[in-house]
Amino acid sequence: MEILAHTLKKARQAKGLSQAQLAARAGTGQGHISRMERGEKGASSDTLRAVARELDITLARLLGEEPEQQRGISEPDASYSTTNPANAILASPHAPAGLKQLAEDATLIAALNIQPMEWESLTSIRLPPGVDKQGYLQLLVTLRAIIR
Fold it and tell me: If DSSP codes are grouped into helix, strand and coil, which group holds residue 96?
């Protein structure tokens, strides 16, 4: 429950939602969200799925079953969306300019067939400011070489 509490609060705050807003969207009460964030109360699987959906994170990540760090890769911005990663990157005020340039190039995205897990990796690796679209393309190629 401690992992759920920590992840829930962190993801909710990253999305800029109040407990009441998240509760309304997920179909539960603000008090329930508050108790979940304090680790005092669990939730039904339906409620957990609804909360994860509203926070645009996987249920596994919400429950702490996906590691927050792998090979120097930190947890992605909670604004990352599994449904349309490129649009989520474009909408995020925290996404680096070079990554946004890549997300804007629909033709290149289609040609490279960038997968959701690859977007997640690209959003979670913190690069120095000023890395451009080419830098993110090089990172993508490197990630593919490591993973495959």
Answer: coil
Percent of the chain with pLDDT over 70: 86
**CA separation for the pair 66, 86 (Å, rounded):** 21
Residue-wise pLDDT tens digits, 99-108: 999 999 988 8
Report d(CA 122, CA 39) in Å as an integer.
Answer: 31
Q: Could you tell me which residues are beta bridge partners of residue 70?
A: 73
Identity (one letter) of the amino acid at 83?
Answer: T
Residue 57 DSSP one-character state: S
Indicate the angle between helix axes 97-104 and 133-147, nearest 10 degrees: 80
Whole-Å CA distances, 42 to 36, 52, 59: 6, 14, 14
Mean pLDDT (whole number) for 25-45: 90
SS3 143: helix
Number of other CB atoms surrounding residue 64 within 10 Å: 15
| pLDDT given at position 67 | 52
Q: What is the mean pLDDT of the chain?
A: 82
